[in-house]
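dude i think i finally got it to work??
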Amino acid sequence: MNAQVETLLKEQVNKEFYSAYLYLAIANYYHSKNLNGFGHWFEVQAREEQEHAMKILKYLQDNGVMVKLEAIAAPEAEFSDTRTPLLAALGHEQYVTGLIHAIYKQARDSDDFRACQFLEWFIAEQGEEEKSTSDLIAKFDMLGGDAKGLYLLNAELNNRE
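look at this
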């Protein structure tokens, strides 16, 4: 494995766990606002981010790389309104997409074809993550503050697996 790809993947493990922390913080915010469906949606997102971290960790381990786990930074969880966390989540997903693309580029440029193949799943996953978050924002915005619509959307989100 290319040394720079290895370093970037090790760093990404921490960043994926940070993503889980961020989404737990957002879930906590929504639960505090009695928007438990939104809270549940972000709890599911947090579990997915943990799975991403573990997938990368396992890939590194399978390639003989010892990973030193670093501290996970506390996420910023102060939000001015119920739309702001959604925008923060989309911005964060776009940031993670950029990180994955940078790792892929390094792997490609260093002819680390196995890493490229491994990262293709993450590239597709990030597209799905950005779309699902964008779709949630669009639904939220369509409601325009309508309490009955927000109640229905909240209930729909509570059923997400």
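The radius of gyration is 17 Å.
im so relieved honestly
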